[in-house]
Amino acid sequence: MTHAHPLETRDIARVAVFAAVIAALGLIGPIPVPGLVPITAQTLGVMLAGLVLGARRGALAVAVVLVLAAVGLPVLSGGRGGLGVFVGPTAGYLIGWIAGAFVAGLIAHAAGRIARPSWWRAGLGAVIGGIVTVYAFGLPVQAVITGVSLPEAALTSLVFLPGDLLKAGLATALTLALARAYPPVFGTAVAVGARPTPLQ
Question: How does the average pLDDT of the chain come out, rounded?
Fold first, then answer.
């Protein structure tokens, strides 16, 4: 039987910092793509939140950003905010951010209490969590709202894949650089249900 690990003050501070990072990345305006969901830099922050903070704390950092957006603060790319962003074509992707950060953290910190994820775990977490999981939530909603079939929505979204892979690579590199330069930022990123293990 597993027990939840309560958030400590330092954990709350880390969550707040990464929520601020995600919001700050929203200052980089979206790149519009005619007929498609715009390209934003915020998914990089989502990947980083999961890779650095772990599953639970990473997802919480993303959830904080979305709550702030829901109450009207302009924390999303292009200065967007308000409940309207959760009923448009991007709604599924926004919800997918939470799951994406969770999955990224789960993969990156799969062995338990790891202060420095290996490069392959970080990379796999960024791709599976930050891309595959987010698309799994976003594409069905996009298809319904835009009135196209799911295969068509998936096909048209392939244009985003190179940029997303670039962001996954950058998130991996930044995670490893943070691990070398400032290990305390990782705190105690514990995977759900995992037992603490020595550093790898």
Answer: 85
User: What is the Cα–Cα distance from 108 to 55, expressed in whole angstroms?
Assistant: 9
Cα-to-chain-centroid distance, residue 143: 22
Is the separation of the CB atoms in 24 and 44 below 8 Å? no
- Highest-confidence segment of 39-43, 66-70, 162-166, 191-195: 66-70
Specify whether the CB–CB gap between 194 and 112 falls below 8 A.
Answer: yes
Q: What is the secondary structure of 8-57 as a DSSP string?
A: PHHHHHHHHHHHHHHHHHTTS--B--TTSPPB-SHHHHHHHHHHHH-HHH
> Over 70: is that where the pLDDT of 200 sits?
no
What long-range pairs does 149-156 form, CB within 8 A, spacing at least 24?
A: 156/35, 156/36
Nearest C-alpha neighbor of 57 from the set 127, 112, 6: 6
The total number of residues written for the chain in this structure: 200
19: which 2 tokens? 């929520």
93 pLDDT more than 90: yes
Fold classified for 9-29+36-186: Arp2/3 complex 21 kDa subunit ARPC3 (1.10.1760)
